[in-house]
Amino acid sequence: MKRLSLAALAAALAMSASPAFAYKVFVSNEKGNDVTVLDSDKDFAVTDTFKVGQRPRGIAVSPDGAKLYICTSDDDTIQVYDSKTHAFLGTLPSGPDPELLALSPDGDQLYAANEDDNLVTVIDTKTSQRLAEIPVGVEPEGMGVSPDGKTIVNTSETTNMAHFIDRESQQIVANVLVDSRPRWAEWKHDGSEVWVSAEIGGTVSVIDTATKEITHKISFQIPGIRSEAIQAVGVAITRDGSKAYVALGPANRIAVVDTKTYEVTDYLLVGQRVWHLGFSPDEKYLFTTNGLSNDVTIIDVASDEPVKTVQVGQQPWGVAVTPN
Amino acid sequence: MSGAMIDTAGAPKMRRGFPLSAYLICAGGIVWREGLRFVHQRERFVSALVRPLLWLFIFAAGFRQVLGVSIIAPYKTYILYEVYIAPGLVGMILLFNGMQSSLSMVYDRETGTMKTLLVSPLPRWYLLCSKLFAGVAVGVVQVYVFFAIAWFWEVRPDWLGYLSALPAIFLAGLMLGALGMLLSSLVQQLENFAGVMNFVIFPMYFASSALYPLWRVQESSPLLYRICQFNPFTHAVELIRFALYRQFNTDAFLIVLGCTIVFLGGAILAYDPARGLISRKRQ
To answer: Residue A224 and residue B65: Cβ atoms within 8 Å?
Structure first.
């Protein structure tokens, strides 16, 4: 009897636990002006596509998973949607042509890189008010917030710099020169390093956050692919800090990097012109947006094998995953 | 073989029913001889492997960028061209092996070894099936050695895939071997075998899905697409391709099975001493 009740308890736990692992993957389609939704419970089938503003690119989910923020670049604003119902909730005041955004760990502040006016906009997500505009380099793009929320890193595509901004003072505290056209800034989860990708340079600069100096520069070579086609864009680092993934744009590959040796251990074939990356909440899968082949490739993180590719909208660009 | 020969002494009395052991001895002898021949002809083993490996290492590397492959079943994501042509190269091994076995039958006929085989009191169809089985067993060994080398070339289906592909490889081998057997009944001399190369092996191989997916063939030539669809080799390759990824392609299975029955039936008829082409040719 005792055994039976234990089994029933285990079954009940298993059943109640399974929906908790269900999550949604949101993909912004730059040309389709919409967002595609994939459901983890339905083998990553497309369950919805909803219209958003013009040229949606940067996309993020609030830490509580309730809201979806999208940079609608050609509408010069950030749109907010309900992540469950996909209903439009309102807009946030960014500058012109917002491209990428990042949220503070508590979700209270949103930082948007406005490509056209060389400013990073700080927005209060509760009041929808613009709190500050911080001047940075020319064509700001990449945005990354430190795990403790105290430091924000912005990259400027034309100035070729990573700007370290102090959240309190809203001032730039350090500028680090990186390779040509930096596009993404990714913090390690222990806050010790920031990885900045350079699209034209085709490299990733690893910056020590204590000294603000580049400690390693990772370059990529793929047999049979000309070096100009290897353009580092999106970067994702696992929570345990053991592996990093770098999207290589027109090389149609994701580089897997050992974060201890800074050596590339593998190149994974994905769709054409891969832009950005997003992990599932359990970090079992990595999702890549493939801009020219209009699809998303799903990579098994444990084995580093691409397992599936799903068709989405026109020119997928950004990807965001709900926490659970 | 020798066992089968010894049994012939009592053949007239036992004609209606041989014990199972006689059948097994006969089949064992034929397989053993085929295996010995294969092992002793090391150059045959090497060339059987070099051919597909050249395609894998050189052709596939050169065409990797030109022939980008889109996602088609059974694949679920993008694959390298090497991965795409691997089942086709397995088909190539089986195709050449089937034809080579038939070549050896022509050789056997010329040298008189065939008579030793056919003098066995066991039914002719059984002798042919044993010969076919022996040829396919040799082909399967070649295929798995190829898989082992291709693994280092990033052709890595999961481990169960290698197992699930075995019946498909065997059936495809039977079909191609039976075709070779049928052809061998038509080829009178060894020299004529060049014709088999030009008129059977090459057209079968190139007009199939072994090198390019059929949708790509259809884009360039609808007629060629039709020809590819009617080519049983296409279906043999697709059967192996699907099985390698643990999927069952029913259409391909039925077509390959049907063709095996037709080719084998034809070969048995052709080798029938009373009705077959062989008897007529000997005149």
So the answer is: yes
